[in-house]
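new request in #modeling-help
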Amino acid sequence: DIQMTQSPSSLSASVGDRVTITCRASQTISRYLNWYQQKPGKAPKLLIYGASSLQSGVPSRFSGGGSGTDFNFTISSLQPEDFASYYCQQSYSNPGTFGQGTKVETK
Amino acid sequence: QLQLQESGPGLVKPSETLSLTCSVSGGSVSSSSYYWGWIRQPPGKGLEWIGNIYYNGKTYYNPSLNSRVTISADTSKNQFSLILTSVTAAETAFYFCVRKQVTIFGLIDYWGQGILVTVSS
């Protein structure tokens, strides 16, 4: 299986802050990297696919980049509704493994 | 708008069989554009891909579960199902049914709300 290492596992931030999360794959996955947001008691929601493409309806403050093995996810200006957990997932090969998640908490 | 809804027992005894069904509305499990799959998440922990089924009946199972898992589809009811045998307490988790694109980077664009299955005697 391809291992996905996500960091940090948690972070504290304030509304308006710029937040960046990184994800590293154990082998090259081209741009087959997706980002999901999960709020407590809810299913994950797709935000970014193909490393940098914004899913329809997702605010433009969310962005992603990278290719190969190293990827990043950024929230340009954190909003109150963005406090949640975020997961990267590789879809290059089965099983589509996930990072361990990053919990974004209020400072 | 596609909707996925999981159903099944919320409590299963250790060593017994977990059986869940996902009902699909607003779309068809017979579409060649998607895989239909299952993902689980122990409370407070990360996400694990269990497996998926394609419209032609072809399945993929996570090798960590391979010998215990079966995913099937009933096109007449527009449903797909998960069977996991010989469960242990460590498999207490939220089980989500999902739709995964065949193309478009294999993204997962729809999730069910999830169902908590507790494995306990």
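bot summary: Chain A touches chain B at residues 1, 31-32, 34, 36, 42-46, 49-50, 53, 55, 87, 89, 91-92, 94-101 (CB under 8 Å).
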